[in-house]
Design goal:
Number of helices: 3
Oligomer: single chain
CATH topology: Ribosomal Protein S5, domain 2
Strand order of the largest sheet: 1-2-4-3
Distance between the termini: 30 Å
Order of helices and strands: HEEEHEH
Largest sheet: 4 strands, mixed
CATH architecture: 2-Layer Sandwich
Strand content: 15-25%
CATH class: Alpha Beta
Length: 122
């Protein structure tokens, strides 16, 4: 499990990633990325946002756990000193139920490829 300091927790941190970062969307999620240039920590930090459109509290927490697990499973592909926010879309529960962790990992990889400096962003 990722330590607390590897998570975005304050609304200001989320706002900075949304406002100043770049994004890439897939059918199931939107990935925002923001390079931190002036901070001392080289850690990657993650924030997860799952709205009520996805489901009740139990379903939202299940989706958040699955997203965190899939994201940190891709840690070798992540650039240092970046903040990421993953926003789940309502169709994500269908993906998790149908394809499980491999489907979620594939969607995250697609978003990471699109949000990388060489990829396109939305």
């Amino acid at each position: 499990m990722a330590s607390k300091r590897r998570r975005l927790s304050r609304s200001g941190e989320f706002d900075r990633v949304y406002r100043d970062g770049s994004s890439h969307a897939t059918r199931y999620l939107v990935l925002y990325t923001f390079p931190r240039r002036d901070e001392g920590s080289e850690d990657v930090r993650l924030g997860v946002s799952v709205s009520r459109k996805v489901g009740g509290a139990v379903e939202r927490n299940r989706v958040k756990r699955a997203l965190r697990e899939a994201f940190w499973g891709l840690s070798e592909q992540l650039p240092e000193r970046h903040d990421f926010v993953v926003v789940a879309r309502s169709e994500i529960t269908d993906l998790i139920d149908r394809e499980g962790s491999p489907g979620l990992t594939g969607s995250l990889e697609e978003a990471l490829a699109g949000a990388s400096p060489g990829g396109r962003s939305t």
